[in-house]
Design brief:
With about 170 residues, the protein is mostly helical. It has 4 helices and 2 strands; from the N terminus they run H-E-E-H-H-H. The chain has a two-stranded parallel ribbon with strand order 1-2. Helix 2 packs antiparallel against helix 3 (about 95-130) and helix 3 runs antiparallel to helix 4. The termini are far apart. The model has no long low-confidence stretch (mean pLDDT about 75).
């Protein structure tokens, strides 16, 4: 039995441009994608093609910006973790207590960086999957709030710890 070809599928083979799609793979049509998981659809590295009916393009770009914000936070936390583990100082040598605190504190920041990355990627996948099913959603959930609270608490606690160690050293 011949397959019915939609208007979108007729445009897809002719919509490639080397600048937009350097690998030359066929896009995945996201409209009402129900068979299997959206990110595992063939071709795996194919671009996702959304219908722009209401505000889909705006919402999808906002979802990507949110993921990139989580990625940026994760990179900053990883850089801070490496700087803490290396006991990075410009003017003086680190004290014994700073060297003793460096590894555990650096590991905490490294784990927070990984959790930010995983949470951002999971939110992105869940949001794009819901966009494909045309479901309304709210981005923030209890996981996002919990990770944000732990990250903020770790940053504030580390700042207080650095202030206490620097005030003890200046005595």
């Amino acid at each position: 039995m011949p397959r019915i070809v939609t208007a979108d599928e007729e445009v897809v083979p002719h919509s490639f441009h080397l600048l937009h799609n350097t690998a030359g793979v066929r896009p995945v049509l996201v409209t009402n994608h129900e068979e299997g998981h959206l990110f595992l659809a063939r071709p795996i590295l194919g671009p996702l093609l959304f219908d722009n009916l209401d505000s889909d393009a705006r919402d999808h770009c906002a979802c990507e910006r949110t993921f990139l914000s989580w990625l940026r936070l994760s990179i900053f936390m990883a850089i801070v973790a490496v700087a803490i583990v290396l006991s990075f100082h410009l003017k003086r040598e680190p004290t014994a207590i700073e060297r003793r605190m460096a590894l555990p504190l650096g590991l905490v920041f490294w784990l927070l960086a990984l959790s930010c990355l995983v949470l951002g990627f999971a939110n992105y996948i869940r949001t794009v999957t819901r966009y494909s099913r045309r479901q309304a959603l709210v981005q923030s959930g209890w996981k996002t709030q919990a990770v944000s609270t732990v990250v903020a608490a770790a940053i504030i606690a580390t700042c207080i710890l650095f202030l206490v160690t620097s005030s003890e050293q200046s005595r």
